[in-house]
Prior knowledge:
alpha/beta; five-stranded parallel beta sheet; globular
Amino acid sequence: MILVLRALGVGDLATGVPALRALRAAYPDEELALVAPRWTAPLVELIGGVDRLVEADGLGELTWSGPPPELAVNLHGRGPQSHRMLAAVRPRRLLAFANDEAGHHDGPAWYAEEHEIDRWCRLLAWHGIPADRTDLALRRPAPGRLPTGVSIVHPGAKAAQRRWPPARFAQVARALTDRGHRVVVTGSPGERSIAEQVRVLAGLPAGAVLAGETDLGELAALVAHARLVIGGDTGIGHLATAYATPSVLLFGPVPPAQWGPPPDRPWHQALWVGPRAPADAEAVHPALAALDVPAVLAAVDRVEQGATPLVTGR
């Protein structure tokens, strides 16, 4: 049995897809269990190849009652806490980055500025398991009750430094509406107030706010059948990449070279004005604040010109 740790969020799981598929291909007859938060289950199903979800909301003691796995793979971080979490279930072999503090020396060095996709592909390659960094597509779910062909504005993000001002998102939403787009505003339940603020400022109808009304699987379906996605450096941008949905993503403080979409796909535009000195943790990062509305709308023009035909996922 192969036990893989990736106990983080949407973007973390999406950037780990090539590595997960590489492990599936390398061990086709082994059960593959993924350690991740329970709420990610709909997205795990869209990846395919994962036999079981082992629930974990973060790092700590792993609830494990089965026999020691043949192989444990740390796709979470460089350790030591994540290394020790996996080592505690006594796998026969652990694939992870070298970490002296965790007593793990059999692995490559960690490069802080490496792209997140390349990081995990390199880890597996070091252990003789080839991975295709371009293998990012997810299975395309049916839209169900959700609208299709909409342009999604996603103003939220976990950290305040990664949230572009709602008033600017509203200006973009209004401009898109004037161009004939049907705009909806998405987010988590905790981001509904931000979404409502954007809606009111943009003059959108009440039904345009979907924040808090979709689970992860429904959000994936919405993105899969959308016309456009506009948001920050957060999970929805990775869903746009997975479904080849044209997107404009606003980055700061972390550059797109570490978390952005593949640069060779013109239907995705990652905007960043940096590097800039860090600011107050509760304020928009200067590299993001420097982005203005005309720059975002110009990027919309570019992605629509370079839009790829609808791609059928796995």
